[in-house]
Each structure stands twice: as C-alpha cells, then as structure tokens.
Amino acid sequence: MRFLVQRVKEASVTVGEERISAFEGPGYLVLCGIAPDDTQAKAEKLCAKLLKLRIFEDEKGAMNRSIIDVAGSVIIVSQFTLYADTNSGNRPGFSTAARPEIAEPLYDFCCETLRKTLGERLGTGRFGADMAVRLLNDGPCTFLLEA
Fold this sequence. Notes:
Layout lengths: L1 E14 L2 E16 L6 H13 L3 E2 L5 E3 L7 E6 L21 H19 L3 E3 L6 E16 L1
Helix pairs in contact: 1-2
C-alpha cells in the first residue's frame, strides 16, 4: 500500500459538476495506491503513520507538527496508477495494482480508519470515478509512505 502525501493549503475533488470534498487551511491531499497483497493490517499501519507524520512547521520553522497538531484536514483519493509499471515500453502496465474487488474495500477501510480520528475533517474521492482533483501544494512538500 502506498500513500502519496502532499502538504497543501487547500484541496478539492469534483466528480462531474458535483464538488464532493473540499477544504481550505492546512492539510493533506493523499493519493492511495493499493497492491493485490495489501491487508487491513497494512492499511491500519499506514493510516497511523499518516496521522503521526510531522511535516508541518513549528514556531522555529522545523517540520515538527502532525496533521493532528495543526487541526488540519485530509482528502484521500484512490489512485491505482501509483502502482503503474513503467519499466518497459512507453505504455504503463497496471498488473501490479489491486483489482477493484480488493482495492475498494481497503480504500473504504482507510477512509473509516482516518475518519475515527479526523471526523468531518476527512474528505474522500469516489472510488473508480473520473475525478477533478485540485490542490494548492504547500512547499511543495510531498512524501511517499509505504506499508
């Protein structure tokens, strides 16, 4: 399982004409990639790491505060392309990404796990939908978390 975490000043997700998630203020836009062998245990571990990740600046300018410390928001979006194989040829292969029947329940589990801590400060994408994802990256500051 992979989370591509972007520290942002604002983010939103729109499906068609419907804005399904949005926030302004400090937060993360998280792209969630799931592999065929991922489990709920891996998801729990990665969600805990995300919540404890200290990438917001403290009063001295050091990255020393977590999303909890800054009362920030999170939008998490499923993205199977995080497991694209680009090693040969010019067209990515996606056989290393989990099929929807595995990925969707694990994505939903991640959302439920994060919502327990973040409550209304958690927004989501819509699994399998064609989404317009917007963000204002802060830094830019981007990290890859893997479990």
